[in-house]
Specification:
Blueprint: E1 3-4, E2 32-33, E3 39-43, E4 53-59, E5 66-67, E6 72-77, E7 82-86, E8 91-96, E9 103-105, E10 109-114, H1 120-128, E11 135-136, H2 142-146, E12 156-158, E13 161-162, H3 190-199, H4 217-229, H5 265-277, E14 282-290, H6 292-301, H7 308-322, E15 344-346, E16 348-350, E17 353-355, E18 358-359, H8 367-382, E19 396-400, E20 419-423, E21 427-432, E22 438-451, H9 457-472
Parallel strand pairs: 1-7, 15-19, 19-20
Antiparallel strand pairs: 2-13, 3-10, 3-12, 4-6, 4-9, 5-8, 6-7, 8-10, 9-11, 14-22, 15-18, 16-17, 20-22, 21-22
């Protein structure tokens, strides 16, 4: 299910990607004249500061439908999530210029809004007469259809009359809604569509329980269960929406060798971030930490909903309190900032990429609340409901492959942050004790990658010593 954006969110002005504090209509749009108009242009918004193009997941409204200000019109996929986008004006959805599955550059026209029914034919004429340069024609690849999840402010309608000579083009990828039956528009979340295909459920036969009747995964599962129980055939397995997501690269065993696939929106964003990280002079420091005491604490409070991820995040946050430079960030190469908050971003593998939900103020929140918050964030991430502040405000990042048995690895530094810590698996290790005897203790390897412009080797060494003390004597983690 997509997330509805308030009409006060920042607009996707093509000339600049501004944060939500810039609340203004885009009056510098290249396809518009500054005239009080009755036919308004709806163009692709900037849903994040890194977004350059967006994909139309589904149109909630059909051509000719009357719209009211604040009503959701279209679901747009950016590099992190799916978002419901609202209209800023009353009127009629006169012409859809980019159909479901189409990709458009930020700032390019995706539809026209007419003030009255009489103006709909004129708007359709303008749409059909536009020439396309800013809309990207893209047919969804099998890989993009497979993804179950992936990153936010609304569709902007410029308060201007459209200049036919400069108006943005329309590229239709499909003339029929992916979830339509007999020409009737049926709106469903991307995950619900995927689930319906896997469970062989007709979306047209389902009554949606989501916002404005949208079909969500739960509706498909219930329909599949009902169909299974009333049929004499073998029951159809119901796939839980909460099942762990796996990397798209690890779940493509059926892909034919030699084929190529276009990056998904999320993979494209990850690629750009990784290329940007190469410009940062990074270095790495490793450390071995004994986890026997932490493991014992986890077993003791696990029944209360505490997760190991929350415990490691809490320990990291408390260590950062004593070493603020490791929590700092350098964005312009000329200065750096000591961040006011300690926000721990934790990398989560998704089908088609990864995302980093953020545990905000992790040093100030008790371990039980922190664990509940982490579960909520993961659920929202997999349902594509994360808000920008829930994935873009991290000041320090954790990447944990220990759950896969990986004992050590190096992580790539996310742009705009000072450090990221790679956490390996805790494993029984034969060691020499302080009294010269041989013993067995559980130990894990952590490797920190840091921006050497602001963080030095001694800074990381001191930070890791503090972190080790907190994990090896974890009584402070439950305070």
């Amino acid at each position: 299910m997509a997330t509805s954006l308030p009409s006060s969110a920042f607009v996707g002005c093509p000339s600049s990607l501004k944060p939500p504090s810039h609340l203004h209509l885009c009056k510098s749009h290249p396809n518009a004249l500054t005239i009080n108009a009755k036919i308004r242009e709806i163009f692709m918004p900037a849903l994040s500061s890194t977004m350059t193009e967006g994909k139309i997941v589904s149109w909630i409204k059909s051509e000719g439908e009357k719209l009211q200000k604040g009503e959701s019109v279209v679901v747009v996929e950016s590099d992190k999530a799916d978002m419901d986008v609202e209209t800023f004006y009353d009127g009629y959805l006169a012409a859809i210029m980019v159909e479901d599955g189409g990709v458009a550059a930020v700032g390019s026209a995706i539809a026209l809004l007419a003030e009255t029914e009489e103006e709909i034919p004129e708007a359709k004429s303008k749409a059909s007469g536009s020439t396309g340069k800013t809309v990207i024609d893209q047919v969804p690849s099998p890989q993009s259809e497979k993804k179950t999840l992936i990153d936010q402010p609304p569709v902007v309608q410029s308060e201007t009359l459209i200049d036919k000579a400069n108006s943005s083009p329309a590229v239709s990828v499909s003339s029929e809604h992916p979830a339509s039956e007999g020409g009737k528009r049926v709106v469903a979340t991307p995950y619900a569509k995927k689930l319906a295909k896997e469970l062989k459920v007709e979306l047209g036969s389902i009554t949606g329980s989501g916002p404005m009747g949208r079909i969500v995964a739960k509706d498909v599962e219930e329909a599949a269960s009902s169909s299974s129980s009333s049929s004499s055939a073998a029951p159809v397995p119901v796939i839980s929406q909460a099942k762990p997501a796996t990397s798209s690269f690890a779940s493509q065993a059926s892909v034919v060798g030699g084929t190529s696939a276009v990056f998904t929106t999320m993979q494209g964003a990850v690629s750009r971030n990784m290329m940007e990280s190469l410009s940062v002079p990074a270095f790495r420091v490793g450390y071995t930490i004994t986890t026997d005491a932490l493991d014992a604490l986890y077993k003791k409070i696990k029944s209360k909903g505490v997760t190991m991820t929350a415990l490691v995040a809490k320990a990291t946050a408390l260590a950062l309190v004593k070493h603020p430079v490791v929590n700092a960030s350098c964005k312009d190469g000329k200065s750096f900032t000591y961040n006011n908050n300690i926000n721990i971003a934790v990398a989560v593998a998704m089908d088609g990429g990864l995302i980093t939900p953020v545990l905000q103020d992790a040093d100030k929140i008790d371990i039980y609340t922190l664990s509940r918050k982490w579960k909520e964030l993961v659920d929202k991430a997999r349902a594509k409901l994360l808000q920008p502040q829930e994935y873009s405000t991290g000041t320090f990042t954790l990447s944990n492959l220990g759950m896969f048995g990986v004992d050590r690895f190096d992580a790539i530094l996310p742009p705009g942050t000072g450090a990221i810590m790679a956490v390996g698996a805790s494993q029984p290790t034969v060691i020499a004790t302080e009294d010269g005897r041989i013993g067995v203790k559980s130990q894990m390897q952590v490797n920190v990658t840091a921006d050497h412009r602001i963080i030095y080797g001694a800074d990381l060494a001191s930070f890791l010593q503090t972190l080790a003390k907190l994990i090896e004597d974890p009584k402070d983690l439950t305070l």
